[in-house]
Design a protein that fits this description.
- It contains 17 helices and six strands.
- The chain is mostly helical.
- The chain has three domains: 9-243, Growth Hormone, Chain: A, CATH 1.20.1250.20; 247-316, no CATH class; 327-569, Growth Hormone, Chain: A (Up-down Bundle).
- The chain has a two-stranded antiparallel sheet with strand order 1-2.
- It is globular, with a radius of gyration of 26 Å.
Length: 584
Amino acid sequence: MDEKLGLTVADAVDYKGCPAERSKTGGWIPAALILGIEIVERLSTMGIAVNLVTYLGGVMHLPSSTSANIVTDFMGTCFLLCLLGGFLADSFLGRYKTIGIFVVVQTLGTAMLAIVTELPQLRPPPCNRHSEECKEANGLQMAVLYLALYLIALGTGGLKSSISGFGTDQFDEKNDKEKAQMAFFFNRFFFFISIGTLTAVTVLVYLQDEVGRSLAYGICSITMLIAIFIFLSGTRRYRYKKSSGSPMVQIFQVIATAISKRKINLPYDVGMLYEDTPEPCRIHHTDQFRFLDKAAIVAEGDMNYLTAGPNPWKLCSVTKVEEVKMMGRLLPIWATTIIFWTTYAQMITFSVEQASTMDRSIGSFQIPAGSLTVFFVAAILITLAVYDRLIMPLWKKWRGKPGFSSLQKIAIGLVLSTIGMAVAAAAEMKRLSVAKSFVYKNINILTSFTWNSSALPISVFLLIPQFFLVGAGEAFIYTGQLDFFITQSPKGMKTMSTGLFLSTLSLGFFVRSFLVSVVKKVTTSDDGQGWLADNINYGRLDCFYGLLSLLGVVNLVIYLICAVWYKPDKAKPIERFTDAENKC
C-alpha cells in the first residue's frame, strides 16, 4: 500500500481527474512548457510599456505628463488585475483554465494594438508637436487605443496570478528531490522574466522605432499563439491541484465574526477558544491582533450538532483566525514596499523621455530611447549573479546563513532605489544645464524640439547609473518580496499572497500617476510651466526626482520600524510527513 502511494502525488490529479502518477506527470518538462507563457507575456507587456510613452507623445501628440500617466496607469492595471485572476483561479477555474483563458485575451489585445498602430484613421495627422496646427488624438482614437491596452492588461493580470503557482504545482514539496527542484524553479522563473524583458527592450523596441510598431506588436501576437500551442501540448503531463476556495471568504468570515462578538470578553485561558483543526495542522495562538480572537469564542447557538460543524460565519477555529493574522502581519511590509515601484515607474516613463532628448549615437548606430532600459535589466542579471556566486558563499562563511533574509533583501532594495533617485536628480541637473547653455547657441532648440529633433550635446550614457542602481534594487526587492509573501503566508492563501505581492507593483504605478498629477497642479505657473512641463527641457524633473528620493528616505525609516515589529511564526521542525500532515 505504501509503495503504491509513493508512485502518486497525494494532493494532485492528472488531466482525467485520477491521482497523478509521479513518473508520468509533473517535473521539469511540464514546468518548462509553462515558463514559455511567462517569457512571451513579459515580451509583450514590457515591449509595449517601455516605448509606449514615445508613441503617445510623438504620434498621438499628448503632453509629456499625460503620456507618462497613461503608461503607469496601464502597468498598474496589469498588476492590479492579478487579484482578479487569483480569485478566479482559487474559486472557480483553477490555474490551468485561468492561464488558458487569459493568454487568449492577451493575444487578442496585442493583435488589436498592431491594427490600431497601423491604421492612419486611428491616429492624428503627423506634425510638429509645438506648432499651432498640431492636433492631439481625438476621443475615438484614444478609446480604441485604450481598449487594446486594457485587453492586454486583463490578459496579463490573469496570467501573472497563476503561472508561478501552476509551475510549482508540477513539483511535490513532500518529496525531497522535487522540493529541491521547486527552489531551482523559482530562480529560473525570475531569470526567464528578465530574459523576456531584455528581449523586449532591445529587439522589440528597435523594431518599433526602426521598422514599424504594427510589425513589432504583430510579432508579439504570433509568439503568444505559439506559446499557447506549446502550453496546451503539456495538458496530459501537467499535475492539477483542486482549488480550495477563495481565501477572501475565510478572511471576511473571521472579521465579520469578530465584529459580531465585539462586546464579548475574551476568556482568560486561550485554550477555551474553539479549535477543530487536526493537531499536526494547527497554528498556535499569538498575541497580535487580539481583537480577531473573538471570532473563536464559543457563544450560545454557535454549535449546530445536526451538521458536521459550526456555521463559519458565527464561529471560526483558532487556526483560521491565526491564518488571517498571518496575512494581517504582511500588510505593513506590503505597504512600505509600494514606494519602490513608484520609483521603478520612472525608468519606463521620464527616464525614457530624458533619453529621447540626448545623444544616443554609437558611431553610425542610433540607440532607441526605450532600449536604454537594457541597462536596467542588465543590472538585475548582474546583481543576481553576483549575489548567487559571491555574496551568498561569503555570507554563509561569515554568518552561517545561506544569504540575506527576505526582509534584509527588501531593505537593500529600498536603499538602492533611494540612492538611484538622488543620482537621477543630479544627472537631470546636468542635462538641464546643457539644454539651457545650448539655447544661447540655438535659440529655437526648446521651441522646436520634437521626438525626432536634433539631440542635445550630452551623452545618454549619463543615465546609466540611475538605471543600474534601481535595477539592482529590483533584483533584491523582487526576490525578497516573492520569498517573503510566499513563505510567510498560510498554506491555503499562497496564491492570494502572490497577488498581494504583485499588487504592490500596481499601487506603485498608481501612486506615481497620482504624485505626477499633484506635483503638476501645485508647481505649474501661469505660463503653463512647472516641474513637469509638457516639454521636459522647460521643466524641473530634477526636483521631482529629489522629491522621490526624500520620500524614499522617509519610507525606509517606516519600513525598518515595521520590519522590527514583524514577528514571523516559527514553524515546528518536521522530520517526515505523516498521514495526518498530508491531509492538512
